[in-house]
Specification:
Layout (H helix, E strand, L loop, with lengths): L2 H13 L6 H13 L3 H12 L6 H13 L4 H13 L8 H12 L3 H9 L6 H13 L3 H10 L5 H13 L3 H13 L7 H14 L2 H13 L6 H13 L3 H10 L5 H13 L3 H13 L6 H14 L2 H13 L7 H13 L3 H10 L6 H13 L3 H14 L4 H13 L3 H13 L8 E6 L2 E6 L8 H16 L27 H12 L6 E5 L5 H13 L4 E4 L4 E5 L2 E2 L6
Parallel strand pairs: 3-4
Antiparallel strand pairs: 1-2, 1-3, 4-5, 5-6
This protein binds zinc ion (ZN) (2 copies).
Amino acid sequence: MSMNRVYKFHAWLIKTGQQNHPPALRRLLLWCAATPSPKCLSYFRALFAYIPSPDTFAYNTIIRAHVAAHSSPSHAISFFTQMRQQGVPPDNFTFPFLLKACARLQLGQDVHTHILKLGFLSDVYVQNALISFYGSCGSVELALNVFHAMHEKDLVSWSSMISSFTNNGFFNEALALFRQMQHAKNVMPDEVTMLSVISAVSSLGALELGQRVHYYIKKSGLELTVSLGTALIDMYSRCGMVDKSIEVFDEMPLKNVQTWTALSTGLAVHGRSREALRVFYEMKKAGLQPDHMSITGILVACSHGGLVQDGWRVFKSMKDEYGLEPMLKHYGCMVDLLGRAGLLCEAYEFVEKMPIRPNSVIWRTLLGACVNHNHLVLAKKVKKRLNKLDSYHDGDYVLLANAYGGAGRWVEKANVRNSMRAIGVNKKAGSSSISVDHITHEFISGDNSHPQSQSIRDFLDRILESIKDTGYTPLTSNVLHDIEEEEKEHTLGYHSEKLAVAFALMSVKDTRTIRVMKNIRICNDCHSFMKHVSAKFGREIIVRDRNRFHHFTNGSCSCQDYW
Ligand code: ZN
Ligand code: ZN
């Protein structure tokens, strides 16, 4: 319904003297509610003021319109206050809208009290809204209280609770609840439920669980919709099995830009740059226009594959062919691409000429590249620019300290380290997780909290000893890689991913693939360690770090040491 028609109708009402006629006003209100935009809302409010004594329906309509317009949740709340002051009774439709408004403003615990006082707490519709409300405010416990107190839970109750868990990072809890849901009576998970479940699995990177979820979808006869299929493609890639992503992609009857993008980005982070590019161009052939996301994915592919020419071509085509204005992240990808390839001056020039003001991430990317390529002069120059933007980022200090250390300038290095301590900058601890027989074990660098910690370390020492025969030497001096590089002097040998792999070799004797999920980038030494272990023990090892996947087999990595 266009606003023009609403105005015309209103004008007609006035002309025919019906402007105060309740059914006519009602119709007008509903039309306004169906066209929620900030502009029509002010008109709507003016109209509302003319209603002699608005009833519950009128209030619900105006509250809903303000919630749907996204921009005016506070108006919605003041209409509710007015409603209460006028003694108009709210009903079970009032609260779900109100709760949505409160969730956006991150307030509204009193609404719960109102609901309780007015006796709506046993209404399923209201309860479900409360679960979503608490979930979106980050109060998972309160959401769970409502959920548990419900006598009858419907599909929406389960879905809302699962997504509350997922959205707040409680992935295992989300999956546990999904298992319970499968035993519950009268509910069948639908697409919405499954999207939350898949999102939880993807965040955990838990392949076995993912396979079970996929099997469940097939078995339950849920249609492989575009969103569901796209989520599965993304899930398999995040769980380290991008070949399954391709399978799902081929099975999908309908695909959109997100679907193609999920596949090409998946291939990109697995180091399969050429294939990613092919998918990108096939998408074009299929008549779909790439969006900002697809371009980002493809630039990542070029960056990880060292495909400088292709990267430039795609970057330039954004504007020329697709009419897309490059955003900060696309410039970032280009700096990364040039930096990794060692084209440092070109990268510096690129940043200088950017039409958007480069942020600290861009400068930091460049700094990382300078350090990796041992270009100290440029590194110092970049660091100065970075200092102007934010001087408290720990990574830069670590990086520069390492650059000096690597070049044998220990005094400067000590100075940087000291100034780091003086302003209280700390490093992020590296952590890796691994799933063995459905249990997830987490390891933190240099930490002894795992119950088998001592025997894992002993076993790791033996591995380190044994791969020395095949030519492994700890790369203690060459530790310039990461922006968030881990402490090395003492703990290099016990970086979290090494502990995780040692644990896997200890506890799983068959030749299953070892899958490690890591929070920050893998360092050079661990990378070399993985290669040697994959050859010595004849095992495939997959490490997901912050940026990409490394597949280690027979002594080499899928990234071809370019990461
Ligand atoms: Zn390491
Ligand atoms: Zn690698």
